[in-house]
Amino acid sequence: MDEQKLPFVVRKTENKGFGLFATKDLNAGDEILVEEPLVSCQFAWNKLYKYLACDYCMKSLETAESMSQRLTENRSLSLPHPECCERNVAITVQCPQCEITYCSTSCRDKAFTEYHQILCPHSQYCSPEGLEQLDETWRNIHYPPETATVWLLAKIMTRVKMEKNKAEFISYIEEFCHQCKNESEEIVHKLLGDQFKDQLHMLREQLKSLFYSDDIAHWFTVEGFEKLFALLGTNQQGIGSSALSVWVHNCDNLDLPDGQRDQLDTFIDKLYEDLEKVSGSFLNCEGAGLYRVQSKCNHSCAPNAEVSFLHNDHRLTVKAINDVAAGEEITISYLSECELNRSRHSRQKHLRENYLFTCWCKKCQAQNGDPDVTSDEDSEDDMDDT
Ligand SMILES: [Zn+2]
Ligand SMILES: [Zn+2]
Ligand SMILES: [Zn+2]
């Protein structure tokens, strides 16, 4: 997207930091922003469980058929309409030194200039044992369902070493950290649980021994590291990619005679049932990324825009879901669909604990008179906690 032609401006708000404001009338369905992350990364367990993704852009690299076979544990499963699978000729590119896989030479080259020159296990600058240890420490702290990854920090720290303009890159990262001490502590505790001080210390020591440089010495102090870690919790955006979803999407768009359409729909419904039985809801390559512009888009419990991943990789799209008038703030939801349907009290509690603000959107204002009740699902969560 041409920066000049973006249909919004980023500006400071009275009480919510930055926000995105429409500069022209937008219609439901309009594309507002397409953005590549500053850095992105697949989750550690997701990778370990062989959800094969491009190490640079997170594109799902299996064919839709091999993905379905793996996730249903049915090796003889075959998918109709192979032409709907965009990865049918599964071309992958490897690092010439190690096993790491990319979707294209362009991703391999970008990875090499940004971080892989240092993170490649065969590089003279790399300590493969150190990286393995870091991965293991992280996996032992953070079990699925995964919501964060220490690898984002590892990639950021490596980028600092590789960047020509280090000061600029560091300032981009520090734009994300704006919590104060107590708030950072709260977020990190939420991510790591009761042992957080010990675990955080361990991660800090391991990252320091791998990636320390004078330019970022302040990231390795107790307080600096807490802040850096908290930025993961409050700013990272989850990413999902799946060759199978692309296949389903393309199948939906096929122009078929009625009989064949019904047959295909029945096949897809049955496939999802089988997937659910064996793999539950873990169907996608999952990871997280940091997006400079999207991270400035504020939350509303009645949002007028949504985030999606339409390209089967880490490129994020923000689309209007309602008409937005020029001058109006563009908002997305930080809550899942199911969390959005909970009571005002439950929504606000979740947002306060995870994003450190009390929501005062139109919907929250309209429901201000509602009693402070916790939605049923939340009471169950609370009981689980005790
Ligand atoms: Zn790629
Ligand atoms: Zn390599
Ligand atoms: Zn709200």
Automatic annotation (TrEMBL):
Xref: SUPFAM superfamilies: SET domain
Molecular-function GO term, any one: histone H4K20 trimethyltransferase activity
Spell out the reaction equation it catalyses: L-lysyl(20)-[histone H4] + 3 S-adenosyl-L-methionine = N(6),N(6),N(6)-trimethyl-L-lysyl(20)-[histone H4] + 3 S-adenosyl-L-homocysteine + 3 H(+); L-lysyl-[protein] + 3 S-adenosyl-L-methionine = N(6),N(6),N(6)-trimethyl-L-lysyl-[protein] + 3 S-adenosyl-L-homocysteine + 3 H(+); L-lysyl(36)-[histone H3] + 3 S-adenosyl-L-methionine = N(6),N(6),N(6)-trimethyl-L-lysyl(36)-[histone H3] + 3 S-adenosyl-L-homocysteine + 3 H(+)
Biological process terms in GO annotation: methylation; negative regulation of gene expression, epigenetic
Record domain SET: where: 6-335
Q: Which domain of life is it from?
A: Eukaryota
UniProt xrefs under SMART domains: SET
Compartments annotated for it: namely:
Cytoplasm
* Protein name in the entry: Protein-lysine N-trimethyltransferase SMYD5
What is the protein's species of origin? Phallusia mammillata
